[in-house]
Amino acid sequence: MSRQTNIQFSNEIQALKDTRSTIITNQNDNINSTINYPPYIQTILKIEKQVDGNIIINGMTKESGTETKKLLEILNGNISRLKDAIQYGGSFRAKDVRENQTQKENNKDSHIHVDDFKEYIHLIMPSINNNADSSSSSSSSSYYYTNYIINGDNLLRIISNL
Length: 162
Prior knowledge:
Blueprint: E1 7-27, E2 30-36, E3 41-50, E4 55-61, E5 69-74, H1 79-88, E6 90-96, H2 103-106, E7 109-117, E8 120-124, E9 128-134, E10 138-151, H3 152-161
Antiparallel strand pairs: 1-2, 1-3, 1-10, 3-4, 4-5, 5-6, 6-7, 7-8, 8-10, 9-10
Helix pairs in contact: 1-3
């Protein structure tokens, strides 16, 4: 019995993952912020083209082996804008489908920004806000930022060949 799949083509590319967090605490009207800069993590991005023409970008860390987590879904109509953003910088529309988001955040399109730094691009994901603690005298919010550093020429070649 064969298993049906929605994936038409798939390819992988190496990337560096930069994840930062900012924790803002307000206690008795005193605001304090802490920024965490952990080291870069080497990862693999798996880029899949579905039968309907949409592109899915999945992240896979070296530690987890073959475990992949969905990051973005780019609709067929937004792929040309994605290519332009890779070549020239700028943003494109995509659905942010990462875990650990509220249902409201997960159901909307996001503008994903691409910064161009010579031969490498920075794929900047939307921040995730986690209101962790709240009481009458103090409150705390955490913001998580993720940035993928990728060889732009290789990514453009993969997207164009899908």
